[in-house]
Design brief:
globular, alpha/beta, 11 strands
């Protein structure tokens, strides 16, 4: 019987679920909304994950042997899904974790070092002897998302409103955001709040585009935000002797390499900054295979990446109910 493996990557914006065989061949892929439990609550997180898993098309000649889920914020709650997963996939080895471990393992395997994420949210994870021992930042959008897409979008909104109400200097951000809303900023305030964290994070591109056009406000935002990300590496220094790798992953780093270079330029001199070349969900598959003693070698990685971009996703419809 063929063994299959499931990897799950979930952040503030999307949840990606992929089924592969032991060779790294992608057999099925599901995509749904993000399910960080600090954003949406534990019940909605469970419902979203189960919806995505049920959408996978699993060949009858095999069995799901292992599953690893890297879910932003999962280290702060108990999702209590083990029995449910055992019922769905008898004999499975399943681990529901946060997103700290898989960023590093997807690029470098099981080594000591750090994984830095910058997408909707941001954080840095410190891995020693294969175990995440400390997370720096990443405390949710109400507390700490320094340098993230959400913080960039939020800063863009703040400076746009400050300009319009006479408290701040001119910035192209006001018109750029109004063009997205289709109405004036004041009239669009309800839409902004309705869209919440994900919508605000989606406005980050206006800051990058404004900076490219020479807007001083946008350049100031990027300067301050890149510093907040780079300082995470200094907090990691005391956990390592000498240099240590920091794998940089997430949608913001991937879409805006100049921003990643700004972070690298300010990072600790002991931090060896590495741009991830694989999606975080691949790290989840590495961890799933590891649970069964299977090492994802170069051939597995190559085969996975060959068909990842062209793999057709099953779009899942998930009800998003915000906590509180």
């Amino acid at each position: 019987m063929t063994d299959y493996y499931i990897g799950i990557d979930s952040g503030g914006t999307k949840t990606e679920i992929i089924l592969t065989d032991g060779r790294g061949q992608i057999l099925s892929k599901a995509l749904t909304c993000g399910c960080n439990p600090l954003d949406v609550g534990t019940e909605t997180t469970r419902e979203t994950l189960l919806s995505g898993l049920k959408a996978l098309q699993i060949p009858e000649e095999g069995r799901v042997s292992a599953l690893y889920a890297g879910i932003a914020g999962a280290n702060h709650v108990d999702l209590n899904m083990e029995e449910t997963l055992e019922t769905m996939y008898p004999g499975i080895k399943a681990q529901i974790d946060d997103d700290r471990r898989m960023v590093l393992s997807g690029t470098l395997g099981h080594v000591d070092g750090c994984g830095m994420i910058c997408g909707t949210g941001s954080s840095l994870s410190i891995i020693v002897e294969g175990c995440p021992i400390r997370q720096v930042g990443g405390l949710g959008y109400l507390v700490d998302t320094g340098g993230s897409g959400y913080e960039l979008g939020q800063a863009g909104l703040k400076y746009a409103f400050r300009y319009l109400d006479g408290r701040g200097e001119y910035t192209v951000l006001a018109k750029a955001i109004e063009d997205i809303l289709g109405v004036g900023l004041w009239e669009g305030l309800g839409k902004i709040y309705e869209g919440g964290r994900a919508f605000i994070a989606s406005l980050a591109h206006t800051v990058f585009e404004g900076a490219d056009s020479g807007d001083e406000v946008c350049q100031k935002i990027l300067d301050e935000s890149s510093y907040r990300l780079s300082e995470l590496t200094f907090a990691a220094e005391r956990h390592f002797d000498g240099t240590f790798p920091v794998v940089m992953s997430g949608g913001i780093f991937r879409q805006y390499p100049d921003y990643a270079r700004m972070v690298c330029a300010r990072a600790s001199a002991r931090a060896h900054m590495i741009q991830a070349q694989v999606p975080p969900v691949y790290g989840a598959l590495v961890e799933a295979m590891w649970q069964r003693g299977v090492k994802a070698d170069d051939d597995v990685r190559r085969r996975f990446m060959e068909n990842y971009e062209n793999c057709v996703s099953t779009e899942c419809r998930a009800v998003r109910r915000y906590a509180g």
